[in-house]
Amino acid sequence: MSDKNQQQPLTRKERKDLKVLALFTSVYCKAHHQAGRSPIENLPPELSHLSGYRCCTECTEFLLYAIERRLKCPLDEKPSCKHCTIHCYRPGHREKVREIMRFSGKALIRKGRLDLLWHYFF
Fold this sequence. Notes:
This protein is mainly alpha-helical. It has one domain (about 10-120). About 50% of the residues lie in helices and about 5% in strands. The protein has five helices and two strands; from the N terminus they run ααββααα. The chain has helices at about 5, 10-30, 55-70, 95-110, 115-120, and strands spanning about 40, 55. A two-stranded antiparallel sheet has the order 1-2. Helix 2 crosses helix 4 (about 95-110). The chain is globular, with a radius of gyration of 14 Å. The relative contact order is 0.16. Residues about 1-5 have low confidence and may be disordered. It comes from Malonomonas rubra DSM 5091. This is Nitrous oxide-stimulated promoter. InterPro entries: Uncharacterised_YgbA.
């Protein structure tokens, strides 16, 4: 992968956004898909710390797709995806990420993760 985004190290904000995406996908998967959850594999080396989250095959494929799209984002100052003007997800995936974020955000806030309020509203 000789993409320019792969050569540049991820910023702190990008790593945090991808960690939140992995966390939210894992929470969603745990609530909706009971069987076959395993650690996330095939992550880029700089995101190997996300392998601690567990997802089913379907959610893992979605998460890897979302990570790939985020890493290939052409914008210099990368906005959060919901505020982006380009929307690079293929049809159906944008709705899926909205569903995951909406469900998991509410679930984590109910469990006391108030630090995620900022990400949920903005």
